[in-house]
UniProtKB/TrEMBL annotation:
InterPro entries: DUF347. It comes from Roseicella frigidaeris. Pfam families: DUF347. It comes from the Bacteria. Keywords: Membrane, Transmembrane, Transmembrane helix. This is Membrane-anchored protein. The chain crosses the membrane at residues 30-53, 65-85, 91-114, 130-147, 153-176, 183-201, 213-235. Coiled coil: none annotated.
Length: 252
């Protein structure tokens, strides 16, 4: 197979952040505003995710629509996992954040022990792709828990949450430019974009009484989905984010 993950460009990060925001607002919209409830919403989105991942695994190369559809759906499911633990099982956000961090570290440890690389430039076998999507799922769950912990349990609020996580991502980029490892800084930034997107989604959609701008989940989800569709269409047509062939060092 060819590499199944797009090149990391500005478009990649914009779509990723917008996807995380849609995951936050989309899950709330289906469960609360549509009235499906947590269980029905979980079953529907999990089924859609499994179908999407089946199509993604069946491809032999990176196909933008398949890849980003899987990212959006895994964002919703990752959000629902954390929300289920918090709202239904009343698991502390401190506990869930720590637990997801341990799970993600475990995935990385097993992935590296078998493949000797965590680089997204070498997702060119089914096993590596399985590790990749499992890691992505835990980054979304961890990011949701960490974001809720910061904005709710620690009372940072949505605006400060956006600024704080944005600053952490900027610091990660500076570290990368100063010579920090590409793989390490990528995964740190990938995790941080989840609470950034969640805080942004809550800031835009939540009522002004709760510190938001009051745009609502419907408007926020539709606007962000429209931008995602436009960007994915653009990269599909231009091939702007088509992954480059892996070099010897990346394959190792």
């Amino acid at each position: 197979m060819l590499n199944k993950v797009p090149e990391v460009t500005l478009a990649f990060w914009i779509i990723k952040i917008l996807s995380t925001t849609v995951g936050e607002t989309g899950a709330d919209y289906l469960a609360v505003h549509v009235g499906l409830g947590t269980l029905v919403t979980d079953v529907i989105t999990l089924t859609l995710l499994l179908l999407s991942l089946s199509a993604q695994f069946a491809a032999r190369e990176y196909i933008p629509w398949r890849y980003w559809l899987a990212v959006v759906l895994i964002s919703v499911v990752g959000t629902q996992i954390t929300d289920f633990l918090t709202d239904e099982l009343e698991v502390s956000l401190y506990v869930s954040t720590a637990a997801f961090a341990v799970c993600l570290a475990g995935v990385f440890a097993i992935w590296y022990s078998i493949e000797r690389t965590l680089s997204i430039h070498s997702i060119d076998t089914t096993r590596r792709e399985a590790f990749y999507w499992l890691a992505i799922l835990f980054t979304f769950a961890l990011g949701t828990a960490a974001g809720d912990l910061a904005t709710e349990a620690l009372s940072m609020g949505f605006t400060i949450g956006v600024l704080a996580f944005g600053a952490l991502i900027a610091a990660t980029y500076v570290a990368y430019r100063l010579g920090a490892g590409e793989v390490l800084t990528f995964w740190i930034a990938y995790i941080l974009t989840r609470p950034l997107g969640a805080s942004l989604g809550d800031l835009l959609s939540q009522s002004q009484n709760y510190g938001g701008l009051g745009l609502g989940t419907i408007v926020t989800s539709i606007v962000f989905l429209a931008v995602i569709v436009a960007l994915v269409t653009w990269v599909s047509v231009t091939g702007f984010d088509r992954p480059a062939p892996a070099g010897p060092a990346e394959c190792g």
